[in-house]
Design a protein that fits this description.
Layout: H1 17-30, E1 32-45, H2 49-52, E2 61-64, E3 68-75, E4 87-101, E5 103-110, E6 127-137, E7 144-149, H3 151-160, E8 168-172, E9 178-182, E10 192-197
Length: about 210
Amino acid sequence: MNDGFASPVRHTRRLPAALLVIACFVLCESARAARVVLTGDAFVSSNSAEERAKNFGADKRLVVNNNCRSFLQFDFSSLPAVSPGEIRKATLYLFARKVEGPGSIDIHALAASWDEKTVTFDTAPTAGALVQSEVRVPKSAENNYVIVDVTAQVQNWMALGLAWNYGLQLAPGAQGTNVTFDSKERGARAAFLDVVLAGSGGRTAR
């Protein structure tokens, strides 16, 4: 059927299949995200003398508010040996189960070791270098991920050696907040790190 319009002439050329395979290999191998395993998490509370001495490592919550802060520990052993410069990006994902008080959180590297099964407010490790400040946690973050760039800190751990990786602390920022994140005890939506590596010759984490 002629609709009154001339059919356009298509000037297209198909790439050979071998070239498509090579292009895909180069693009896919040049950078690949690796999931870094969360091995420990807990929150500590100063709500009362009893809670100061209580361990919440088995809790399904990670609470951050004026009386509570939370800790995360990640295992980087699954990553290949890379230089700090080979880390293109490291992103922390925190699933906000409930936002009772919108505000902000500060994220610090921890300066000493701790154990999720024993840590309490009274025995908690000291916060070290500031990783990110005033990370916004609006009401709309509820039932969504709060996403934080922690590239510089992961690069720093790689530079110093992973023996210095004591994990991260989540604490209320200057705006304050009252937020509950999922812990690994809750299941699939525990915190995680995505690390994008680019090694020489396309060597990347898998």
